[in-house]
Structure prediction request, 648 residues.
Amino acid sequence: MKSPSDRTSSRKSLPETDVCPELASLGFFKSQRLLALRHRGLLNPEEIDEYIALGGYAALPKALFDMTPEEIVDEVKTSGLRGRGGAGFPTGIKWELARNAESKSGSKYVVCNADEGDPGAFMDRSLLEADPHAVLEGMVIGARAMGASEGFVYVRDEYPHAVRMITRAIEQAEDYGLLGSDILGSDFDFRVSVVRGGGAFVCGEETALMASIEGREGRPRPRPPYPSQSGLWGCPTNINNVETWANIPCIVERGGEWYSGIGTKESKGTKIFSLVGKVVNTGLIEVPMGMTLREIVFDIGGGVPRGRKFKAVQSGGPSGGCIPESLIDLPVDYEELAKAGAIMGSGGLIVMDEDTCMVDLARYFVSFLEEESCGKCVPCREGIKRMREILTDIVEARGKEGDIERLEELAYAIKEASLCGLGKTAPNPVLTTIRYFRDEYESHVLHKRCPAKVCKAMIVYRVVPERCTGCQRCVQVCPVNAISGPRSQPHNVDLDKCIKCGACYEICKFDAIAGDAIYIE
Amino acid sequence: MPRLTRDGLDALRAELRESTRLGAPGRRVRLTVHLGTCGLASGAGKVLDAARAALEERAVDDVVVATSGCAGLCCREPMATVELAGEPPVKYADLDEKRIVEIIDEHVLGGRIVPAFVLGTGEERRA
Prediction:
């Protein structure tokens, strides 16, 4: 960087001191540790040459020529890497199962699961867009370890940029002989194709995903048999998430021992999260396992904007759970999140502030899952629907005593009896919000009050005359002309006309209009 | 392109490291526009077009314009990184078509960082 005196005087408005901070000293970047995102910002994903120049495809020859397939599996086992798609199954063990499985036809398959469907999550998409060759290299190494000759990247079609990047990467890798027959002059053959999914949430579930690749309706089936025994077209199949694959080249290159030095006792390495919601710095972060939620939300995320109070974090998307402020010092790894009733999931973190109604939040996630349930099994199809109905009643001020208990009972039944992960985890948002915010549910059900002032049926907007300055800003923003009053005099809200859109509340900087929860008869 | 062998890959890597090194002929500056979906959604495509047009207009031939994926801090997109040979990279945030042209004139061509749009300088921490 040039010293300030080197700058010309043409930029008069600029301070004379050197104001440019170092990137690595900024809160957002300081405590991140980039492994799967190791090439972030450095690499043109459309050019395989850049990946190679940065040291990419260095793990591949090592895996092909210097290691036996068993040694690759052992290295991944040593690393302690666990599935980054959510469930956290040890990757090395999964690979070993697929490696040792007998295939009648001789074929085995590997799949990259990029069917990312959680609202507000974009880890898989960003990784595929930014570093498609890292994912491919991981897949070739995995295929070699398991003896697979064909692979698929299952990515939703609503990620057009990611689809373009991975498709181009495959073509370039084929041109270089890094995919196809006799890779790098070895006797190993492996081909990859892209399968574009229609965007059904359930297709992220591995058995539904395989059905979709086979061209059938994307619906799950009971396990066992697990994909490692009988997967695509009845052959042993190994499915890993995008992020899991992207970690593999590092592990092979630098060793499982090195990788296992990062993270916590049971959860090794780093995890990518998409940090969104009521947080100053929204974005994609990668941190070592075991970092506390406080560090993630406040140090990296910069805290809650506009001086609002932090309330909770939803981890793991609609199948995850909500973690309250009292657990903010929770170290984030698979075990700790599960203890709190949430899941790691694929890495979505949604931050919520005091203006979020937890009952309404649960209703949102449950409606999402109701829509995405494939309908094959009754507990999920009917159970989620009933949960949504009860939750809708509660937020619309029709809650009855016993509703909370009914929700809990339903939740346990759905968890127990559903066929696949979608149903088994669907009650998590309901159960965790009840567990940590039962008082909010009770307030809705018993007193018909929404403490966060979100549920429209329970609030009315009134002007507080002593505080109204008569600025008329609310009069101007009201879309239904429900507010009246001359300038400089307290205004009035016509409750018959008011549609409770909240526009006046937002604009009123003096807080004269208070969304005050009252009884609704 | 012939299919690579192990040795061929090593040779290619060595060759690429030399030819894509900043400071190599025609590579005085690398201007990277971060073009993930988050960037595209906030206008990085226009920033990239504006950068290319500005460089063409000024008949500059020693600047490599590249794209890259999401730079992480999605809320500050569009972002771009300017790296002059021998200097630490500088990451700019909250860009638009006008700002990128200003950065090209001041920093890429003039060598003077534009602090008003700088997010930070130097590298991120990698494992």
